[in-house]
Structure formats: C-alpha cells, structure tokens
Amino acid sequence: MSKYLEKFSRMRTIIADNGGLINSIKTIYRTDELKSGRLVGEDGFGNKYYENKSYFMGRSRWVDYSLAVNLDYDASQVPPEWHRWLHYIADEPPTEAQLVKRKWMINHSENPTGTDKIYVPYSTVKPKVQAWSPPSK
After folding, report:
1. What are 68-77's pLDDT values in tens digits?
2. Where are the domains of the chain?
3. How far apart are CA 63 and CA 55, in angstroms?
4. Distance (Å, whole) CA 90 – CA 71
5. Secondary structure, 3-state, 75-114
6. For 19-44, what is each residue's pLDDT tens digit?
7. Which residues 6+ apart lie within 8 Å of 78 measured at CB?
C-alpha cells in the first residue's frame, strides 16, 4: 500500500512542478512525457535545461524548448555550450563553467535546412557540360 502512496505522491509532485494539471497536459502534448527536476539554467533562445539525478543516466538531463517555437522544435536550437552539458561531455553546466569565448566565434543559430530561410549558393563559373536542347522549328 505504501508504494502506491509513494507513486501518487510523486505524480502530484511532478504535476505541481509542471505548473498544474492544465500545463501538465500541455507538456505531455508537446513532449510526450512529464518529468520533474531542478532548473539548471536558460539560454538566450528561451530554452530551459533541467536535471534530475534520480533518473537513469542519459535521461537525467533534458531541455524544455521555448514556447515560441511551439511544436517546431529541433536539436539544432540548442547552443553548443548547452549541448556539451546535455550529452555528458561536461559535468558542469555553462552557468557554472568558465567557457572561453574567442573573438572568431559567432553566435549560435539554428540549422535552417528544410525551411524557406535556407542558404542556396549560386555558381559564377561557366558549366563544363552544356545541356542539350532540341532544335527549334
């Protein structure tokens, strides 16, 4: 009986940590799971990063993408400094680590492949092979 009470108590805690019943339903709709953890930090894009060491390794760190992107979130929206923490390359998050910022480093931007913002280069070189076109009448 006590294990059922413990599970019910844990479920209540997770729902409370996700902002109540309505926000928990929205979170399940967006991410297909509910988790509870310690807020580690937030990046410049509005993504929030969490950690709960009671979960299995590989599932104990996660990102809650910004609501601005709604359901159109993608892994390229995570900046490199947070990527290293999410993938266990570093133990300390960027909020605690002293990261080196070089002058040649540019700000992170998401990958626009598959969108209308994609960069398509054009060639200024004459083609080596000329395409055949049928003779006109």
Report:
1. 888 888 888 9
2. 1-36, 38-122
3. 15
4. 28
5. HHHCCHHHHHHHCCCCCCCCCCCCCCCCCCCCCCCCCCCC
6. 899 999 998 898 888 988 999 999 99
7. 43, 47, 63, 86
